[in-house]
Design a protein that fits this description.
By secondary structure, the chain is mainly alpha-helical. The protein is 65% helix and 4% strand. The two termini are 44 Å apart.
């Protein structure tokens, strides 16, 4: 990190000349093929990294600006250009990867750079080649269309217009009538968008299936696991893990729903009650966005010198885009700029406790990038997705002792945060199993997909299904249409649940020995992506969530923690 970095708004806007970049990649590939010795080959590899870092820096800048203003024609045009050109450039990058794999100096390069890098190259070649350029371009177009479509949703409520994120404060209001009215308006609006979203997804499924079969795979499930760089676990291992969640966590979630009814003082949960815990309302954080950022700075000042410096750096360089605004893409994310050497945090604050979750979750992602910044091999800077989510979800729990800064009654937040994290697991595996079903049945109709989703909800989250009665959108199996990962990042969701279980391991350890837990966390962050998921866990002395009994052993202590908060006194 450098203190001379310009503020984000002063960064130059550049759209790469993809034809020129492609020509340079070809030149570098030819140089690698002709390299007379190991040292020359290594120098050429570093030259390729420098070029690609610059390209990815500019492309990431475009993606961030577009997500901030999805209707800005300048950014729409640049994003479209990128969507169209990147698949062709990827073919050329694959040629370089092939040359690395075929290099006569591969043994020396592997010794210097690590064998995992070459496994990554092999996976990249399995995941993409020139045969599927057109399909990749169409996939990019459809994903952008989904983002732009949902960002453009405008919901009229009590004389004002709101986007989906902004409706959150009404959907979790302390006034049940407000929740009911907001829910009715919200889901009635989404009812009018079902056909549009179903059509986009149907086209995505078809083009992904076509891509997989062109590349010689049985279906997109096989290709999806390769694209996600799942080096050390399989669909069969995931299937067994999902059953652990069903057997252990679904019953606990059912009990939590009964507790929720008591706390709300209602006989039956309705769809508009599912995100609410207390009659007087969910805990709401203090202050404006600026004030929350100031409180977060105090928290990170106390947590560690590294978090103190890094959060200040992010704030001073305007690298956090927090408030929900019209035309802004939904959700939240962190992304990294390799040349600028820094990440950014994107979110949609809406005045709920979710604002605090962002300041811990997305900061956890960013902090990992900061701690791993000295890793020389670019491909190792960040781990695969499930490991990335450990960094973010664990930070949420390391922040729990400081929740008194944000909430008048911090135990209320701690209770809801932990209860929601536990109840997230059955939902997360629902999303995952749904995606497996979808890509194993690519010819299924939209109605059949909706029915499959509904059936999985009945399996993993039956308490939710009971609450859907009277809400057409949810009753008819359409909850998944606003889960952006299903559209934009297929199979990127089980990652959250695996990471959540590991974050619970950190939480359990932190309550016993903070120093030991923090030391393990820092080690994990610094390791970046130098090892696959299961090896990273071994490096910090944690067991794999895939092992039978690990989910149960991890979750069991948390039930007692929830009781220790004494929710009956809230």
């Amino acid at each position: 990190m450098t203190k001379t970095l310009a503020k984000f708004e002063d960064w130059p806007f550049r759209v790469p000349n993809f034809q020129e970049v492609g020509r340079k990649v070809d030149e570098i590939t030819d140089l690698l093929k002709a390299a007379p010795d190991y040292k020359t080959a290594l120098t050429i590899y570093k030259k390729m990294n420098k070029l690609m870092d610059k390209v990815m820096d500019d492309c990431t800048h475009i993606q961030v600006l577009y997500s901030l203003e999805t209707h800005n024609e300048k950014y729409v045009k640049a994003n479209l250009k990128m969507d169209e050109e990147m698949p062709s450039l990827s073919v050329k990058i694959n040629d370089f990867n092939k040359a690395m794999l075929a290099s006569p100096f591969r043994p020396e390069l592997e010794k210097k750079l690590g064998s995992l890098l070459f496994t990554m190259y092999e996976y990249s070649l399995k995941a993409f080649d020139e045969r599927v350029v057109e399909e990749a371009q169409e996939e990019n177009r459809l994903v952008s269309l989904y983002s732009q479509t949902t960002a453009g949703f405008r919901i009229k409520f009590r004389g004002e217009e709101y986007n989906m994120s902004q409706m959150g404060k009404f959907l979790t209001s302390s006034d049940r009538e407000t929740r009911r009215e907001a829910s009715e308006v919200y889901y009635s609006y989404l009812d009018t968008k079902i056909d549009i979203l179903e059509d986009i997804y149907d086209k995505l499924v078809k083009v992904r299936d076509k891509m997989a079969k062109k590349l010689g795979y049985k279906n997109y499930v096989e290709l999806g696991y390769i694209k996600m760089n799942r080096f050390d676990y399989t669909p069969e291992m995931v299937r067994n893990y999902r059953e652990q969640i069903h057997d252990v966590v679904t019953p606990i979630s059912e009990k939590l729903s009964r507790e929720q009814k008591k706390l709300l003082g209602v006989t039956n949960l309705k769809v508009y009650d599912l995100s609410s815990w207390f009659q007087k309302g969910n805990p709401v954080p203090k202050g404006t966005t600026e004030e929350k950022v100031e409180l977060a700075q105090k928290m990170y000042d106390e947590l560690s010198p590294d978090t103190s410096y890094f959060f200040r750096f992010m704030n001073e360089h305007h690298l956090m885009f927090l408030d929900a605004k019209p035309g802004k893409q939904g959700g939240g994310y962190m992304t990294y700029f390799p040349v600028h050497g820094c990440p950014i945090i994107f979110s949609n604050f809406n005045g709920t406790s979710g604002d605090v979750d962002v300041l811990t979750h997305e900061f956890g992602h960013s902090f990992q990038a900061y701690m791993a910044r000295k890793i020389k091999v670019p491909e190792y800077r960040m781990p695969t997705m499930e490991s990335c989510e450990i960094d973010s979800m664990s930070m949420e729990f390391f922040a729990e002792p400081y929740m008194g800064l944000f909430f008048d009654k911090p135990d209320e937040y701690r209770y809801t945060h932990l209860a929601d994290a536990i109840r997230f697991l059955p939902y997360g595996v629902t999303v995952d199993e749904f995606q497996h079903w979808v890509y194993e049945h690519p010819e299924a109709s939209p109605a059949e997909r909706d029915a499959a989703w509904h059936e999985l909800e009945e399996k993993y989250t039956p308490y939710k299904v009971k609450a859907y009665k009277g809400c057409h959108y949810m009753e008819t199996g359409h909850r998944w249409l606003t889960q952006s990962h299903i559209f934009a990042s297929p199979f990127y969701y089980i990652d959250y649940t695996l990471a959540q279980v590991v974050a619970f391991m950190f939480f359990n350890l932190d309550r016993k020995n903070h120093e030991r837990a923090w030391k393990k966390y820092i080690k994990l962050c610094k390791l970046g992506g130098q090892y696959p998921f299961l090896t990273l866990l071994k490096k910090i002395g944690f067991k794999s969530p895939f092992e039978d009994g690990v989910v149960k052993k991890t979750i069991k202590p948390l039930v007692k923690v929830l009781k220790d908060y004494h929710p009956e006194n809230f």
